[in-house]
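Quick one, tokens below. Sequence please?
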């Protein structure tokens, strides 16, 4: 699971005066993709879900949230293979993790 320590390590790559700006960029992007994925999931829209899990995968790996990045990667792969129900089943856990990452980031603002 993504932790405050992991966030600190990520932010330490940047000048301290840029931390808030970086956090806001990632929070906004994660919130957008989380909402898009939740909507796609509720509408059983595999195409949109594939696109937004792809974006979440990239965001997670950038943040070193590798567990969530791998989960997003597996969901994306299932959708590419046409295993939509499997992807739909595993997406809520990913989105719950994304919400937790967002909360951690907001607490550090």
């Amino acid at each position: 699971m993504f932790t405050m320590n992991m966030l600190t390590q990520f932010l330490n790559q940047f000048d301290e005066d840029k931390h808030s700006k970086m956090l806001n960029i990632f929070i906004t992007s994660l919130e957008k993709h989380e909402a898009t994925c939740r909507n796609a999931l509720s509408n059983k829209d595999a195409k949109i879900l594939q696109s937004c899990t792809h974006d979440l995968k990239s965001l997670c790996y950038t943040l070193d949230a590798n567990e969530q990045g791998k989960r997003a990667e597996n969901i994306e792969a299932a959708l590419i293979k046409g295993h939509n129900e499997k992807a739909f089943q595993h997406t809520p856990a990913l989105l719950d993790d994304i919400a937790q990452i967002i909360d951690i980031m907001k607490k550090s603002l």
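The mean pLDDT is 96. The radius of gyration is 14 Å.
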